[in-house]
Write a structure and sequence with these properties.
With 432 residues, this protein is of the alpha/beta class. The longest helix has 22 residues. The chain is globular. The two termini are 16 Å apart. The structure holds pyridoxal-5'-phosphate.
Length: 432
């Protein structure tokens, strides 16, 4: 098999290493868990991206989720250019803010008021502060296997044994911060209930990725999600849905709409910025009235609700509201998943494709994976081989076994056929 030409990317990476830690500006981009140097991209159009060595790939990373319309969508581009013609930032409110605000609030039953920020991490950090300010309590609960950005109090994993208090997963986080976070496994209602009985009155918020998509795709059962809602209500705890990935992806109303569960606060990012840097959080008017300048919880941002971002967001969200947008995407995802799964079953290859809406994850397992500890340790090695084979066949997946894939409206059925063929033939080579 021909191996990918990577000379230019490799040279740029060597140079980048002298400029940025690990040569990158976000760790997973460094290709640490897959083969070869990272590919330096030059352009993207529709479902395809092109790198410095002029290799073209069908892209299933889609900038980690924001590009639900694919690369360089003509309407998004047009809106961005028209806006930039008038200036890039004013540090004042703009009409675009009202337009996107109405677009979101009028089409999402659980959002009454929103606030824009510049990243998903910032949205989550602000939501946690709001929950603490609102309840007057300090502790929060998070779940093993959910990622919420690089917020101090959420870069935390479970302590050893039965202890639920958090241990930080990054240097530089004071133990006292981590101790304010309690960590539980996903899909363990009994453990959750027990913890609330012990500590419920100290807990400000429970934060969950309602469709956990950062440690594989760990889809939870609806009744588990409903119990979380009920128990939070019983103990006066705010339920935060971190919808940075699932928001506007699993439907316009995201996971909250999918489960028909009203979270108290929701956090967003990715899709609402149409590929520009963005974050957002929101909830009921009553809870949001605690944010400054209406209320005592301070939160601000120089470039928040940047007009160029908002223009890209308006163009994107408008298209998502078109009839059958989400249905068409889901059909494509099921087409890809079903074809790979049928092939694997036929060939006795122990692989499944877990999927929801337009998110999919290739799991090296024969049974459903619903929590982080069920992910087989060999997955990394299998994925490393798969990733390398797929790059050689012109398919780009996020460079980690734990990252999900995304399908955009720009992916055609021909694209999907090409991907299915490449995935199946690669798996067959790996497992033969
Ligand atoms: N929350 C979730 C669920 C995410 O997936 C991410 C990033 O992938 C974040 C928060 C952090 O967002 P950002 O990378 O924009 O800071």
């Amino acid at each position: 098999m021909e191996t990918l030409k990577r000379d230019r990317s490799a040279r740029l990476f060597e140079e980048a290493k002298s400029l940025f830690p690990g040569g990158v500006n976000s760790p997973v981009r460094a290709f640490k868990s897959v083969e070869g140097p990272p590919l330096f991209m030059v352009s993207g159009q529709g479902s395809r991206i092109r790198d410095e060595d002029n290799n073209e790939f069908l892209d299933f990373c889609c900038s980690w989720g924001p590009l639900i319309l694919g690369h360089n969508d003509p309407d998004v581009k047009k809106h961005i250019i028209e806006t930039i013609e008038k200036g890039t930032s004013f540090g004042t409110p703009t009409r675009l803010g009202n337009i996107i605000g109405k677009l979101i609030v009028n089409n999402h039953r659980y959002l009454e008021k929103i606030r824009f920020v510049s990243s998903g991490t910032e949205a989550v950090m602000s939501a946690i502060r709001l929950a603490r300010g609102y309840t007057g309590r300090d502790k929060i609960i998070k779940f093993e296997g959910c990622y919420h950005g690089h917020v101090d109090s959420l870069m935390v994993k479970a302590g050893s044994g039965l202890a639920t208090f958090g241990v930080s997963t990054s240097a530089g986080i004071p133990a006292s911060f981590a101790a304010e976070t309690l960590v539980l496994p996903l899909n363990d209602l009994e453990g959750f209930h027990r913890l609330l009985k012990e500590q419920g009155e100290n807990i400000a918020a429970v934060i969950i990725e309602p469709i956990p998509a950062n440690n594989g795709l760990l889809i939870q059962d609806k009744n588990y999600m409903e119990w979380l809602r009920k128990l939070c209500d019983d103990y006066g705890i705010l339920l935060i849905f971190d919808e940075v990935i699932s928001g506007f992806r699993v439907g316009f109303e995201g996971a909250a709409g999918y489960y028909t569960i009203r979270p108290d606060i929701m956090t967003f990012g990715k899709i609402i910025g149409g590929g520009m840097p963005v974050g957002m959080y929101g909830g009921s008017a009553e809870i949001m009235s605690h944010i400054s300048p209406d209320g005592p919880v301070y939160q601000a941002g120089t470039l928040s609700a940047n007009p160029v971002t908002l223009a890209a967001g308006i163009a994107t969200l408008t298209k998502l509201l078109q009839v059958d947008f989400y249905e068409d995407l889901e059909k494509k995802t099921q087409y890809l998943s079903k074809n790979v799964v049928e092939f694997c079953q036929h060939k006795n290859i122990p692989v499944r494709v877990q999927n929801i809406a337009s998110i999919f994850w290739i799991a090296f397992s024969e049974s459903r994976v619903q929590s982080a500890d069920q992910i087989s340790p060999e997955s990394n090695e299998y994925f490393r081989k798969l990733h390398s084979k797929l790059l050689n066949k012109g398919i780009y997946l996020g460079p980690s076994a734990y990252e999900v894939g995304f399908i955009s409206s720009a992916h055609s059925y021909d694209d999907l056929d090409k991907a299915v063929h490449a995935i199946c033939s690669s798996l067959e080579e790996i497992f033969s």
